[in-house]
Amino acid sequence: MAEPAVPRSAADGEASVGDLVSLAVRDVTRLVRCELELARLELRADFGLITAGIWNWAAFLIVAGAYVVLGALAMLVVYIALRRITGLRKTRDTVQEDLAVLRGSEETPQRAAVEAG
To answer: Where are the domains of the chain?
Structure first.
């Protein structure tokens, strides 16, 4: 890179047209090679970014899928737990007794069931 752009001929101190053309061809060739190398490096870098982006999406989908599965399992556990609840049997019986007392009935539904049984 430190060589002179135009070599001087020893005889007259100026370069010939042939020397100038050969320098121009050499410089264009070097420029094309450097541009091709730059294009290769940019493609490799872009490919690396694309693959990194794909892995980010894959990770997102895996985590989102895991949360959906965990949510479905939680809903299943709650559904099974709610099916086991029998509807507050004791509360229903005491409310019926209280209503019977308020109506003035002598027998509560439980006493009638005990006496009949």
So the answer is: 1-61
Q: 5: Cβ–Cβ under 8 A, 6 or more apart, which residues? A: 23
Residue 96: CB atoms within 10 A of its CB come to 13
- pTM metric for this prediction: 0.40
SS3 52: helix
- Confidence at residue 91, expressed as pLDDT on a 0 to 100 scale: 84
Give 13-49 pLDDT, tens digit per residue.
688 999 999 999 999 999 999 999 999 999 998 888 8
Q: How far is CA 31 from CA 2, 18, 40, 55, 90, in A?
A: 16, 20, 14, 36, 93
